[in-house]
Amino acid sequence: MDGLHEFCRNSGLNPVCTLVWICCLCINQHRVIEASSKGAIVPFEDFRDAFESRVCGIGHICALMAPWQKPAYVTRIWCVFELFIATTKGCSVTVTMPPAQADDMLDSLLRADFGVSALDEVFDTLRGIRVAEAQATVEADRTNILALIAAGPGAGALDSHVSEYLRDWVLATCEARLAKRQAEAGGPDAGV
Fold it and tell me: pTM of the entire structure?
């Protein structure tokens, strides 16, 4: 919830009346698993089409990155696929994290004895994004998503795109948190 509150605060939205789509509630992947256990098959194409139409219909995704050192978002194939759909279909993408995570990331980067290794850790994680290694609850979904990616931009291009997008986000997040701290402290660059 902290990440969604931070998104609303940063976007100037009222969290009380802002509507969000939460994938697992709007596309119930657990029903697919339940149907499979009963021998019924939900075709991947139906699932993909519903997923894509909802992402595109909303037109904006908010990706939650936590923990900052190794965001779970980049390890899940449906999350990476969500980002793929959003970025290839012209949707807006906002990346957010809970304020405590953003503060911890900045604190780690500012510590003289830890900053370089913390930044290296984050960038190593981003450089290490491999959609081919992302996980899914249903292995057939993973296989089908990887086939879509292979027929589209290819895994390497998608990995690079996601990595670069998130690297820029890390830098912008740190810059914004540092500016906020300077403003709160009334430092020489207050309000920057």
Answer: 0.75
